[in-house]
Amino acid sequence: MAAGRSEITPMNIYRKGINNRMAFRCFFRTVCLFWLLQFATVRSDITDGNTEHLKREHSLVKPYQGVGTSPSSQWDFSGSTLVTSQYVRLTPDDRSKEGSIWNTVPCFLKDWEMHVQFKVHGSGKKNLHGDGIGIWYTKERLHPGPVYGSIATFHGLAVVIDTYPNDETSDRSFPFISAMVSNGTVPYDHGKDGRSSELGGCSAEIRNKDHDTYLAIRYSRGRLTVMVDVDDKNEWKECIDIGGVRLPTGYYFGASAATGDLSDNHDIISMKMYQLMVEHTEEEENLDWTKIEPSVSLLKSPKDNIDDPTGNFRGTPLTGWKVFLLLLCALLGIVVCAVVGAVVFQKRQERNKRFY
């Protein structure tokens, strides 16, 4: 036997097998731990409702104290809105109604998340109901108009739950949830269901549900995310996720709804506002956020959505989940190649050693 080479015995081969299995188990546990940590990070993107960060001055909850027209009220309402101990009904299931409820306290949070529990229900059958609900963060408040009970030209953010297709050429499925940011120059085109100015959206079955239905709107570090929980699974599903959004502070939160020739009950159960604890650069902290003009930096125009039957904005950047999955697949591919290469190399070495 050549000098310097270890003797090949069954025991040595067995020990090498044990070492390979231990190395694989160690790698497998590391990957699992990495996955769990990443999963926990992603799920924490949407707050679990920590009351420590609940901003009561911007929240509407049962039994709706502080709602009214008195100077100390934090919420004001108009139109057909009916406030009960269990819900705030923006419109009844009657034709040609519109109502709204607005926070009277301007919001000066840079990073926030709004959870809306709502209920849309009525006697109308498929496509024989309408019109929908608008959730607003705008400069204007208590201005009735043609867009779900509010004005079509506004400054700020609108997230719309549209239950009736006004555009007969549309091939998307309704109800449809979409978002729009405006600086007061581009109106919401109600006749086209807002498609020319929307940032993205998704279909969601939200009518006549026996369980609770929720919408979450998150704005943080220039990113707008809209999530829904409407399937009674107690989990959020992404609807819209887009970066490059600029929203000022000092605007008002509100909700409105309207009916036309068709109708529905449009109820708000709660609106809970959470402050997100996010660190900003010194330059961002010194910026006067009240003077920011609402805008969105897009690689493509929102009008590109007109050709997209899904309604999803095709220029939306990769989300955290997608980036993580791509990196995980690449990592697993590299590791598999390395393991296969190592096994092949080891077998060749063992085969060569038999000649000594």
From TrEMBL:
Compartment(s) where it occurs, according to its Swiss-Prot or TrEMBL record: Endomembrane system; Golgi apparatus membrane
GO molecular function: D-mannose binding; metal ion binding
Topology relative to the membrane: Single-pass type I membrane protein; Single-pass membrane protein
One BP term from GO: endoplasmic reticulum to Golgi vesicle-mediated transport
Main location: membrane
Signal peptide residues on this chain, from the entry's feature table: 1-44
Domain L-type lectin-like: 52-276
TM region positions: 323-345
Database matches in Gene3D superfamilies: 2.60.120.200
GO CC terms, sorted: COPII-coated ER to Golgi transport vesicle; endoplasmic reticulum membrane; endoplasmic reticulum-Golgi intermediate compartment; Golgi membrane
Name of this chain's protein: Vesicular integral-membrane protein VIP36 isoform X3
Annotated source species: Clupea harengus
